[in-house]
Structure prediction request, 337 residues.
Amino acid sequence: MKILLAGGAGYIGSHTAVALLEAGHQVVVLDNYDNSSPEAIHRVEELTGKKVSLYEGDATDHKRVLDLMQREQPDCVIHFAGLKAVGESIEQPLRYYRNNIDTTLTLLESMAETGCKKIVFSSSATVYGAENAAPCHELMPKGSCTNPYGWTKSMMEQILQDAAVADKDLSVVLLRYFNPIGAHESGRIGENPRGIPNNLMPYVTQVAVGKREKLTVFGGDYDTPDGTCLRDYIHVMDLAEGHVKAVEFGANHTGVDIINLGTGQPYSVLDIVHTFQEVNGIKVNYEIGPRRSGDLPVVYADASKAQKVLGWQAKRTLADMCRDSWNWQKNNPDGYE
Ligand code: NAD
Ligand code: UFG
Prediction:
């Protein structure tokens, strides 16, 4: 199949490109490089020995997207194109709503105009909200989000579901990611956050490489075994392989399917720090600080549906995630620059 990856130069998109190419699919990428670099895709080509059709452009630009879709005629779209920083979304809500909702509408309209009927969407565990106790199951009603980023995901899910009601030939797979970390085992592609990282693992690796002085663990007094929050960390290459399965599933399917991509195994913030230190033999300075507003104590997936429907299960361990994150960071201290 030929797959269009909107936002495909980013962290998850570039790893998914590798997995799709290795599974024998063709890959087209559209990205405005708002949070990425074309170098990621050059490295995808180097790793796989295969060519990617790479377009610079905005997924909210209808003419650009339509021209590209008419020319490339993809069988399926994977929609990664979005802004994702939770704190920034609180400061700049309109930018988040404009970009994230508009990319979704523009992609869906261009698909309708060119007869493309398959879409896989990057959603998030955040849509379960505070109302649902872990493990999060796809049949649970969505909850309320604590920030505009989360609301854009919830709204985009709704838009995609409504589009599938109106067009019975449409196939929509909503993938709810838990916490992707790690990097391709080659160390050639990985997560490349701009500025101070918001997420745990890039912060840990930047402390380890000497770019930041110490990690602040947000809260040590939660009702969890070691007092720090529990999350479902998933290796980005497992996540990428989940996308290959989702695309192949969508090819013979219509309607909407919601699927969690997680491991089902929660780990604490201190588990991450300790495993990272042990596996890599490097010290990570940290201190326990106050809680971060909006954090839930425990979030992890019921991962059984992905196994049943996609025949997919995460294979890589927390040690693999910590080793590969560090391998990427130490070999690319300044990311793709
Ligand atoms: P990322 O920022 O690395 O990738 C997103 C890509 O989209 C970037 O390359 C960015 O330049 C591009 N982009 C943004 N707006 C665009 C636009 N208007 N037109 C074209 N390109 C645009 O982020 P990621 O971690 O790879 O996440 C991919 C998707 O998965 C996002 O939608 C994100 O919200 C979602 N997600 C990520 C996580 C996570 O923890 N990384 C968790 C849940 C969901
Ligand atoms: N954490 C720290 N210190 C840091 C950064 C994070 O202690 O410097 C802790 C957080 O408090 C949390 C855990 O590490 O307990 C993971 O935090 P992340 O920011 O890496 O991830 P979140 O679980 O907060 O958020 C992630 C994605 C969001 C998504 C959300 C859904 O980044 O996109 O999962 O649960 F919406």
Notes: The CA atoms of residues 205 and 329 lie 6 Å apart. The two ends are 32 Å apart (CA to CA). The mean pLDDT is 97. Residues 84, 86, 124-126, 150, 179, 198-200, 203, 215-218, 229, 231, 269, 292, 295, 299 surround UFG (ligand 2) (CB under 6 Å).
